[in-house]
């Protein structure tokens, strides 16, 4: 039996998500919702035989029996406005905007700890790319003095909402890095690259560490990469970790599966694949009618949670 989902937001992320949900053996998309009649995203979904709606979140409240879980692919501001109402209506949200709401989640790090949550925050594409590596670095080192994460994505893959959300992108990526590493001296950078042909999504990770242990790190990073590849097939280290004095450096490329845009758009792929992985795991509880606590506390946190230093989760 499929878990019925609604995709809210008909842009780049929403369309790529639809391609991923269609391939899921567990999820179905019963509503694809935008806010502009005839927009290219709504046409894309309609051509694939999905039921589309152009009246935004109102469509969800008019059809509450048609879905159990909402993927939010709108903007951070829109998420802050409609998430509390959807949760009050008993719906579970997997949030792909960088709004500072919900519990920050990287599937291979803390996916098992979010399965009774009503709002799961998938952070950002740069966060999903860098955090498995940063958590591995932290497992080998007691302290990291400084972390810098620079992601580069193709302009064509960054929709209007992504550009509008740049501040939230930086804040949420940095908050998640602090949460998963305990390091509070952190800098995130996003480069929206207009080059043609479009550039692949790449993320450079630098860390300042007093006594870097490169030998111990290689095994941890290889294990982290294998765990991510279980749900993001195109995730790859392209610059092996190396040390220059106290500076440790490595770099990741994410090749997309070519769902909505071509393979350069790994930035879409990494967050939509992560969101689908979490929705599939949440679906067990949702379909059994597990009552989710409507928790008004804000789970979005900067607090370092040492449980997340545990070994990468074994994902099936
Ligand atoms: N692109 C990326 O690389 C990427 C990666 C990770 C996360 N994200 C995040 O994902 C979200 C979407 O990004 P995107 O690149 O897909 O942007 P986008 O192409 O502009 O898509 C956003 C879509 O949401 C719709 N929308 C906005 N507010 C809405 C509302 N209140 N109700 C219904 N629909 C609404 C817009 O409709 P209209 O087109 O009709 O205005 C648009 O189709 C952003 O929050 C972004 O930060 C993006």
Number of strands: 12
Largest sheet: 7 strands, parallel
Small molecules (ligands, ions, cofactors) in the structure: NADP nicotinamide-adenine-dinucleotide phosphate
CATH architecture of the largest domain, please?
A: 3-Layer(aba) Sandwich
Instruction: Report the CATH C-level class of the largest domain.
Output: Alpha Beta
Total domain units:
2
- Give the proportion of residues in helices: 25-40%
* CATH fold name of the largest domain: Rossmann fold
| Gyration radius over CA | 19 Å
Assign an overall shape. Answer: globular
Number of alpha- plus pi-helical segments:
10
Q: What is the string of helix and strand elements?
A: EHEHEHEHEEHEHEHHEEHEEH
Q: Name the strands of the widest sheet in spatial order.
A: 3-2-1-4-5-7-6
Query: Average pLDDT across residues?
Result: 94
* First-to-last CA distance: 19 Å
Write the SSE topology.
Blueprint: E1 3-8, H1 12-23, E2 27-33, H2 40-47, E3 52-53, H3 57-62, E4 69-72, H4 76-88, E5 92-95, E6 103-104, H5 107-110, E7 119-121, H6 125-140, E8 146-154, H7 160-164, H8 166-181, E9 186-193, E10 201-208, H9 214-229, E11 235-244, E12 247-254, H10 266-287
Parallel strand pairs: 1-2, 1-4, 2-3, 4-5, 5-7, 6-7, 8-9
Antiparallel strand pairs: 8-10, 10-12, 11-12
Helix pairs in contact: 1-10, 6-8, 6-9, 6-10
Bound molecules: NADP nicotinamide-adenine-dinucleotide phosphate.
NADP nicotinamide-adenine-dinucleotide phosphate is lined by residues 8-14, 33-36, 39, 41, 56-57, 73-76, 78, 96-98, 124-125, 153, 157-162, 165, 169, 267-268, 271.
